[in-house]
Amino acid sequence: MRRQLLAVSLAVVLSALLPAAAAPAPDRNLGVADCAGSTCHGSIRPFADRQIRQDEYFVWQRKDAHGSAWKTLFTERARRITGQLGWAAPHEAQGCLVCHAHVPPAEARGPRFQNEDGIACEACHGASERWIAEHVNSLKTPEEKRAHGMTATWDARVRGQLCTSCHLGDTSHPMTHAIMAAGHPPLLFELDTFTALMPPHWDVDADYRKRKPVADTASNWLEGQIAATDAWLARLESGALGHGLFPELALFDCDACHHSMNANRWHAGRAPGLSPGQVPLADQPLVLVQAWAGVMSPGLADVMTVQRERLYKQYETDASRLRAQAGELRGWLQREAWGRLRQGSPDAAQLRQVLRRVAQNAESAQGGDFYYAQQTAMAAQVLAAAIGERGGNAAALKGATDALYDSVKNRDRFQPEEYRGALGKLSAAVR
Ligand code: HEC
Ligand code: HEC
Ligand code: HEC
Ligand code: HEC
């Protein structure tokens, strides 16, 4: 014991004596004004004969919700939310700014940078100090761009993490039950769908494909679910968001608490090993990834099942063990699972099997949970599109996937029976 103490105090003394390795200064964000010149990205119409459209600023400002995310903070609804929370005005509250703007630390702001720009170019493309001049002519390859500090938005894995950080929340962009209870809309995200909805300010044409890697629909879906699983486990592990008698409720299945008590909705398959009446964790993305693993890497899927059940076992012991198990699972997935899942590229028949598993999992969980139902419906749409891309018969699935989508369109009118009926049709169509 004493020796340990001695070692610790020696380390403290040493670290005080040695000069601290100077952390490299972060790249500075120069602000949207530096991107929006009319000969740069501020054209009103896309140029036909250029590699890029050059109307990116116009699209962002006029058609893209990110261009108005800052304005949202001045709406009545936003003020009501922060009012309920007892926070400062929305545009001054860090808990809102992290997602509705881009808030780098002071040392990473250039002279023209301003919060008012909202979620502007550098929020996604990275602080531009080291690439702004060069990217016009001399930075050709994706690797060169990345090396100069540009975020690899073209890489589905990077994009998945980037979008998920705000669209589902992560440890540095926390979406809490308190914010939602105060009136914030619940968050929902699927990478491929939301990329199409932005709408894109880039054209994936032959020239683009020559310059950049392009992920297909199926890998976009997988990367979105991987990013969601990782961010959720990281928040569960951090435990920083637990407070009072209850932990952070946003990490649990919303509809375990927020549903009508008329229907007999509870079902053992939903959370393996949990006894009736416990609040299931919000593990939907993990269940979806497992469907992919079940087809592409069955051995891995079996271990995932064991790991997931372990998480639930620790759940019934105490919070610190649940957190430790979340960390353990996250580390294992990073070491053993994600790399392997990224390797295989499923063909149309394999994607059909993934879709079948998605439908079967949802059916066996009885589909009481609305968010899980929404994720399942989006997965079905996206996977059906991916099947079409790979030469499979997507048209034959359209009736079933559309019916499923319709059944989850409106939360307040959600009928588990109707949803289950649609799931049954989908299962039959992919059998
Ligand atoms: C810095 C946080 C942040 C990042 C990063 C981010 N978003 Fe968003 N996104 C938001 C916010 C906040 C809104 C809502 C803005 C508003 O309406 O005020 C939004 C809105 C959207 C919408 C419109 C949603 C709707 O219901 O109309 C889409 C689509 C979208 N984002 C897609 C993406 C995609 C794709 C990515 C990754 C390439 C991404 N976002 C990255 C914060 C972010
Ligand atoms: C984890 C990131 C995150 C945080 C934190 C966050 N938001 Fe949002 N907010 C979003 C996203 C993403 C959307 C768009 C949701 C969608 O349409 O899918 C959104 C939507 C909204 C909307 C609805 C906009 C519309 O046009 O319908 C309001 C209002 C809003 N946020 C206000 C706030 C306020 C006020 C705070 C702080 C208390 C806050 N948000 C914190 C990510 C966040
Ligand atoms: C919400 C995230 C987000 C924001 C905000 C954003 N972009 Fe993008 N941008 C993307 C994604 C994703 C792509 C597609 C992947 C890629 O090519 O890097 C992209 C692609 C591009 C491209 C590449 C086109 C090509 O053909 O290679 C340009 C240029 C661009 N954006 C400019 C801008 C400008 C200028 C702004 C600000 C006015 C901006 N972007 C804001 C996410 C964003
Ligand atoms: C463990 C149970 C539990 C879970 C899980 C849970 N909530 Fe809640 N929620 C509550 C309670 C309790 C209240 C407070 C009700 C009151 O004040 O009457 C509440 C309040 C709310 C409110 C305010 C309106 C209302 O219905 O009272 C919203 C909105 C909300 N929660 C959304 C969510 C979302 C979205 C999720 C999932 C991300 C979620 N909740 C997860 C228990 C839960």
Brief digest:
This protein has helices spanning 2-17, 56-63, 69-72, 76-85, 94-100, 121-125, 142-147, 156-167, 177-181, 191-197, 206-211, 217-238, 254-257, 284-296, 298-315, 319-343, 348-364, 370-389, 398-407, 416-430.
Features:
mainly alpha, 0% strand, 53% helix, 20 helices, single chain, 431 residues, 2 domains, binds heme C
Overall description:
The chain is mostly helical. The chain has two domains: 26-151, no CATH class; 217-430. The protein has 20 helices and no strands. It is globular. The N and C termini lie far apart (64 Å). Residues 10-14 have low confidence and may be disordered. Bound molecules: heme C (HEC) (4 copies). One heme C is lined by residues 72, 75, 77-78, 81-82, 90, 93, 95-96, 98-100, 166-167, 169, 173, 175, 179, 184-185, 187-188.
